[in-house]
Amino acid sequence: MRLPLFPLELFLLPGGISKLRIFEPRYLRLVSIASAESKGFVLCQPKLNINDKFEIGVHCIIDDFEQLEDGMLGITIRATKRVSLTDISQADDKLFSALATELPAWPVEPAEDQQDGLSDKLKQVLSLHSLYNEYPASIDYQDENWVVSRWLELLPFSIKAKNQILHEEDFSNLKSLVHQLVSDITIETD
User: Fold this and answer.
1) Section 111-136 average pLDDT
2) Cα 182 to the center of its chain, rounded Å
3) Sequence-ordered strand ranges (E) for the chain
4) Domain(s) of CATH 2.30.130.40: residues in the chain
5) Is CATH 3.10.20.340 what the domain over 2-102 is classified as, yes or no?
6) Counting C-beta atoms within 10 Å of the first and last residue's C-beta, which end of the chain has fewer, N or C?
């Protein structure tokens, strides 16, 4: 399926949600295209160099619209699946589009008995995140893949690292990375 591309440093993985402010004409057109038949769009990391190509992204659907106080369009998006991108083209208004092909979902494995409290720490962090408070049905602390994916979204990775994460086929490598990075974090609450 040909979908419009939204190159943005925002990093979402399947199951993630976010709000965006839309103001550029090409991205207003993206919203129109994405809303037609609810086909969505692809969120991808920006190119680091002019000769770089978009290769991978995350298919997102628009869950909600709102008129913001400043008159701009606000949308709430939800990431659904990783996709590979081919046959990339750019319209006159500079909006990119590509053929998006679904990549295999990362396998769901039984939760490991981790002593690092990954889910509990994420609960503390997300309790401060108003968007997840607005969409409680999108939260699944019992799904280790969901928990690891949210940590991967929150941790400060470079654009190059984010693309490597999207390309990773073995989710157990990503789980190990997150457990190593988060295990020593202490979250203070007042």
Assistant:
1) 76
2) 19
3) 2-7, 17-22, 41-44, 56-67, 73-90, 96-102
4) 2-102
5) no
6) C
